Each structure stands twice: as C-alpha cells, then as structure tokens.
Amino acid sequence: MKKRILLTFGFALIVLFGLFLFSQREEIEDDLPPGKATISVDARKISGEVNRNLFGTTMSEPRSISGKRDDLSNPELTKLLNELGPRFMNISNTSGGIPFFPEGTGPYEKRMTHEEIFNRMNFTSDPEGKIFYERIKADPAFRKPPDFNVDDTLQYFESLDVNPGIAFRISTIFISFGGQSKGKLNLDPKTGSDLVHYLNDPVTTELGKLRARNGHPAPYGVKYFVLGNEMWNVVLDSGLSYEQVISQHIAFAKAMKVADPTIKIGFNLTDDSLPHEFFKPGFLEEKRTKKVLEFNDRILSGIKGYFDFVTYHIYADIGTEGEALDPSVLTPGEWKLVMAQTHFYDQYKGYEQRVEIAKKYNPNVEIISDEYSGPLANLGGALFTADHVIHLLEKNYDGYGGYWNSGMFEPFTRFGLIQVPDESHSEYFVRPAFYTLQLFNKYFGDRIVETKVSSDTYDLANTETLHLTFPREKIPSIKALASVSGNSLSLFVLNRVTNQDVESTIDIQGFSPVGKGIVYTLDGPSLNATNEENPDTVKIQESVLTGPLSKFTYTLKKRSLTVFEFKK
Asked: Is residue 21 part of a domain?
C-alpha cells in the first residue's frame, strides 16, 4: 500500500510532464545473443505439498468505483473472476475503517447509514474525527448505507466457480477515512467479536440466527483476522502510541477468541528482511529509520500471547535516486534491478529474517505475505509477481498470499488485476498480473518436485534506489519451478533478462510425457507495456510442443514467463 504515494505522484507526472520525461528517460537497449540455461526436473522427488491459497489477491473495503451499487451484479466481472480462479481473497477494511454492527446487515434500504455508523462510533469525540465529520455531513452519500456489507461480498464469492478462502483485515483504531482524516479513536472490541459471531456462529445463537435471516444459515467459517494495517506509519508519523496500538490489539484479540477460539489473529509487521549493509549511511542514521527498525520488537513483545500469525508487505523497490520517478517508464537498467530483488531476498535469507523476528515471541507463528506487487500493473509487474509467487512456494509460506490488488472497488486501479468501468474506462479489461495468477491457479500442480537450474547471469547497470544500494552481483537469468498433479506435470520458467532470449535444455526425469506439450507464454513489447490503451498488448500466447518431450531444447523469450504443461 505504500505504492499509493508513488501512484498518485506518477499520475501527476504523466499529466504534467509525461511526454517530456519519457523522451528524457527512454533508453534503446540492444538485444544480446541468446543465452544458455539447463533446467533439470525430477518428478520422483517431491519437495512438498502446494498451498494453493498462496495464489490469492486482496480487495479493499467494498465500495463502488462508479458510485452505483452494480459492481457485483455485472456478469462480465463474474466471468473474469471465474477465469482468474483466485483461491483466496484478503478483504481489507482498514482504509475506511468502518466497524461491524449487526444493524449494518439485512436488506440495503434497512441498513445503518454512514451517519448512524459514525454516531454509534462516537466519531466526533476524536478532534480529527470532528473536523472530518463537519466536512462530509452535507454529502448525500453520508445519509446512505455503505455500498456493500459482509453478506453481499462473501455470498458473491461463494457464487464463483471456485470459492476462495477468506481473511478479514479490520481496524482496532479508527485512523483515517480514505486517507482524509488522521484520527486516533479507539474502536469497541465488541465490533470485532460481533463480526466473528456473525461469520462463524451456528444458527442457534443470536447472531447466527440473524445471519440465517439474511440468507446464509451455514457459518462462513472465516479463520484469519488481521488487526490493523501498516501501523508503523501512524505510530511514527501521526503520534499514535505503542501503548494504544498494543492495548487495542489485545482487547480485540481476547474478545474475538472468546467468540471463536479456533480463529487466528494476525498483525502486520514492517519488512526488515534485507541486510542493513544495503542501507545508505544517511538513511540508516535517520531518526525515523531507527524507529522503523525497532517497531517489530516493540509491538511483538507487547502483544506476545495474542497473535497467531504475522503478515508482511513485499513490494518492488524502484531503482533510481530521487522520488521524481514515473514508475510507468522505468529504464531497462532500472528494470534489471527490480527483476533482481526477489533473488536478493533468496540470496540473503529474507524469509528466514521474517521468521526469526516473529518466532522470538511465538515459536508456532505463521508467516504470511498478504500484500505484494511490482511497480505497476505492467508486464514487469506481472513478471515480478511470478518471481515472488515462486519464492512463496519454495519457502512454503503459511496461510495465504495477497497480490495487491484485485482491482475491485479500488480507486488505485493501476495496480489492479481487473479494471472495472469508471470515468476513464468504458469496459472491463485485465492487466498483465491477472495472467500471472491465472497461470498459477490453472496449471500449477498439487506437489512441488525437484527443480534445478543452471543459467547465464546478467549484470546490474544500476544498483541504487532512494534509500538502498544493492550489491553489484551477477543475477541468474532463469528461475524455474515444477509441480505434478495426477497425470500432469507443469514447469514454470521465468526469464528475468530484459534483452536476451535464453536457449534452455530441459531434462525431465521420473515422468514420461505422451502426446503434445502445451506452452503458455506471457510476454510483451517491453516491461513497461500495459493493457491500458489496448487490452491485448500483454496476454498469454498458447503454442504446441512436439517431438521428444522428456529432454528438449526451447528458446525462452526475453522478459517472459513460460509455462509448460505435459500429460502422461
């Protein structure tokens, strides 16, 4: 979500200086002669079971982009979500922060209005809340209910061909509404416990009966709840105290666990998983940086005993000095660094660092990556996503994964998998990362098998971001991972190189393919390519592979994700 700042700034640059910047930053990169790689797969050696919930995405609190309550009734949206087949949906309600009240359920015309919700919250008791309340009270929407509630959303997801698992991210402190206010209003822990009761109680309880009257007798069975989101920002920048964050977390966790002892409570940590030697000296010495680096310990020591999992937000860092970079026109040198970053997390044990800090305070903690994305929803972002999903699979992350974001109800849509119609777009279309997750959902198997890669490398032309200097290392061109399921074997291969096809020798042991292999290739004219002007700019190309399939040579296109599917 930190990308929202970059996105807003990027839009301003495009409007005011887009053509000038592009002409100044455009680089012509000559293609290199084909590189070499060897990929060896042994289907007899099972590395582990696949957690398909890792192929999930994130949806911010339900609200209508168009201002009309018709998003969930559009068959085109349903069609696209069925094509995507998300295994998990991480629903975030921390930007709007509206808590759950039973009176917010039921028929739309009888639900609580925003005005009634704010009054129930005692919203104006907070000085910032009072200012915001005065600003919005004349808006006609203030006297209407929120566009959608939990039943609308969850029952819609249940109507899809694949019913995704669900996590909820809820507020314990009302901090902001759409980024327009900076409050510090403690919410009632009963709003958390009532939500759990409503979602998970049997039909015999008061809230279970209410859920049944609203059309869903069976419990929804939601198990994952994250309390708050990116709280370091408000602690460090808005004066929220550690004590308030900790006490509210504990109060909510206690109340929600009483409602359902089987649920899991999580907290979102700051991602301090790269070596501090990467930090520029000036940045490391900044007062705010030092506070960020102590945040995780201070929070986890305070909520020890009241969390079951932690989440991390892992975003591509943009490779340039200064903040005046439009992420839609990265140079090849900058893309080379972006495409190297997952390798650096692997090389320098980023996952192990994420585990270590949390296990100090809970030896049985689950580690979840509930937000991630590339710089924008372009081809480069789609390939960064592929690299990250392979990382999640190889490290066997827990729980679920959450690409940021689905595009549903999102004002920050240039990260979204799906663009819904709005003032600028008349029709639905999908962005490149949609295809990445679609490929994993459709073709990655149920068990990971041994995959070994030896490939050429590429050099980093640029190693600096605003705050970091990465080591000038040689980056492997190819990343690959294979899986099996029933009589199928799939092999996912990422070519990270911006300007070089790679001739690969692929050797498959312990699996005898028959017939023809199917090849799915996701690539485009450049890593900056998007589907904003032409929805077919970046898409999956399907082809057929014939001849010997146990050992063969295949040329992997530059800047591409290639998926091989074989049957036996």
From this structure: no
Between helices 350-359 and 287-302, what is the axis angle to 10°? 50
Instruction: Verify that 463 and 428 share a domain, yes or no.
Output: no
What's the domain range around 246?
51-196+222-250+266-443
Distance CA 393, CA 390 (A): 5
Q: What is the CATH number of the domain that holds 520?
A: 2.60.40.1180
* pLDDT for 27 beyond 70: no
Same domain, residue pair 416 and 545: no
Q: Three-state DSSP class for 154?
A: helix
- What CA–CA distance (Å, rounded) separates 272 from 36? 35
Domain end, chosen from 443, 463, 496, is at 443
Contacts of 207 (CB under 8 A, 6+ apart): 102, 194, 197, 198, 201
275: domain CATH number is 3.20.20.80
Separation of alpha carbons 375 and 369, rounded Å: 17
Q: What angle do CA 474, 477, 482 make, to 5 degrees?
A: 130
Same domain flag for 390 and 460: no
CA dist 448 and 450 (Å) reads 7
- Predicted confidence (pLDDT) per residue in 286-316, tens digit: 999 999 999 999 999 999 999 999 999 999 8
Could you report the per-residue pLDDT of 151-189, keeping only the tens digit for each? Answer: 999 999 999 999 999 999 999 998 865 555 567 899 999
- pLDDT of 96: 59
H-helix or E-strand spanning residue 40: strand 35-49
Does the pLDDT of residue 328 top 50, yes or no?
yes
Last residue of a domain, one of 389, 414, 443: 443
Q: Is-contact 348 34, C-beta < 8 A?
A: no
Question: DSSP code of 468?
Answer: B
* Residue 358 · residue 298 · CB < 8 Å: no
User: Total structural domains in the chain?
Assistant: 2
228 Rama class: left (phi>0) / alpha (psi -120 to 50) / beta: left
pTM of the predicted protein model: 0.93
Q: Phi and psi at residue 27, in whole multiples of 5°?
A: -125, 135
- Residue 561's φ and ψ, nearest 5 degrees, are -115, 125
Residue 329 within a domain: yes
Q: Is residue 54 within 8 Å of 129, Cβ to Cβ?
A: no
